[in-house]
Input
Amino acid sequence: MAHKKAAGSAKNLSDSNPKYRWVKLFGGQSAIAGNVIIRQKGQKYVAGVNTYMAKDYTIHAEKDGKVTFNKKKFLRFDGRKYQKTVVNIEVA
Output
């Protein structure tokens, strides 16, 4: 006879909290100083004019204005060239 009742075990039921990453303000939208424009993991987007990047790679607006996105060529340490998207704020 069994000494314990038969019961299934649940091992894979835990889940991590969502991070809510990616673009919060799109091109042409107005931003107030301090607004979060992009939350990202790593440096996929680069902070440009009137924006700054936080320690966790979040890009914030430095001044009030309109959000714009441009492509810019960057040079890697091994000599390869590639494009990244630069986030800017145009002050009116």
